[in-house]
Design goal:
two-stranded antiparallel ribbon; alpha/beta; binds manganese (II) ion
Length: about 300
């Protein structure tokens, strides 16, 4: 479930123009808390077990905000939501470097998110949206450390070239995606986590240029490919190389896995699971077929007349 206190809704009493959970007005903060609790209730009806909170809160000009007060107000608000969380639920605190605010963001990076998650308690985790970092951030290192701290809640998969987060996962930095999965495989194995269920796997992208369903198919393919490549890494050899300070050797091991074309393996695995060899091709074929049926239908109508 995702709450939304970053847009004013119709008939909403108070505005989030100057923030929601960070707001100087207790009434606005309470409205944001109440909304999150309402979202949890809807989630229970839907069978969900997690709430993702992303806040647009921050400031666009120096002096606009008292950073410490904004942090403490947000913590107090999150604590109220946390207290309303069912026992088997998790709360994910998502961070974002900038936008819509351009000077400060109250949950602006993984450090701030982790502070909240640690203070809230064991049901609170950090959520990593790949596109929410400053350019060139080392996301794989962030992932490794969050896993190490048992505070990695899950992902919003997408990609980014400059600043925004809505590009298709793997379309800009596929090597980075592979390196993230390499940390995931290693860290989850070390922690004994279930690869399929113990993290939240989400695709967070928005498309008006591509057919969103085609983009979803491409996204899933990119994720599966990065995962397969990460599974191919010879972790024992890599560990040996690291212990011997064999820098070139370590790089070779990673690039050997990354440069192996695993597309046929992923396609075969999909086929064996009862799905399509080429999902995008199949989807397009079906689109054409439906268009033809539609035309034939029109012809039938025309003939009938
Ligand atoms: Mn997101």
């Amino acid at each position: 479930m995702n709450s939304n206190t970053f847009q004013d809704q119709k008939d909403q009493k108070l505005s989030y123009k100057f923030g929601s959970m960070q707001h100087v007005d207790k009434g606005v903060r309470q409205q944001a808390v109440d909304h999150n609790i309402e979202v949890i209730k809807y989630g229970q009806e839907l069978g969900s077990t997690s709430l993702t909170v992303w806040l647009a809160d921050g400031s666009s000009f120096p002096g606009q905000l008292n950073f410490r007060n904004a942090f403490n107000n947000t913590l107090e608000s999150l604590q109220s939501v946390y207290d309303a969380l069912p026992d088997d639920w998790k709360i994910f605190v998502e961070y974002k470097a900038f936008e819509p605010n351009f000077y400060s963001t109250t949950v602006g990076d993984w450090g701030q998110s982790l502070l909240y998650a640690n203070k809230l308690g064991e049901k609170a985790y950090t959520l990593v949206d790949l596109g929410h970092h400053l350019p060139n951030a080392n996301i794989e290192q962030i992932v490794a450390l969050l896993l190490n701290e048992q505070k990695l809640g899950g992902f919003h998969f997408n990609d980014s070239k400059y600043g925004d987060d809505d590009l298709t996962v793997g379309s800009i930095k596929p090597y980075q995606l592979f390196l993230i999965f390499k940390e995931l495989v290693e860290g989850m194995d070390a922690r004994g986590l279930n690869h399929a269920t113990d993290l939240g796997w989400m695709i967070d992208a928005s498309h008006n240029i591509k057919d969103p369903l085609e983009d979803l198919l491409q996204s899933v393919e990119a994720i599966k490919l990065a995962y397969a490549q990460a599974l191919l890494v010879n972790s024992k050899a890599l560990n040996d190389a690291q212990l011997n300070n064999d820098v070139a050797g370590a790089q070779e091991i990673l690039q050997d896995a990354y440069r192996t074309d695993l597309r046929p393996v992923v396609a075969e695995a999909r086929l064996r699971a009862g799905a399509a060899l080429n999902p995008l091709g199949l989807y397009r074929e079906q689109q054409i077929r439906q268009q033809l049926i539609g035309k034939r239908g029109e012809q039938t109508v025309a003939t009938g007349l």
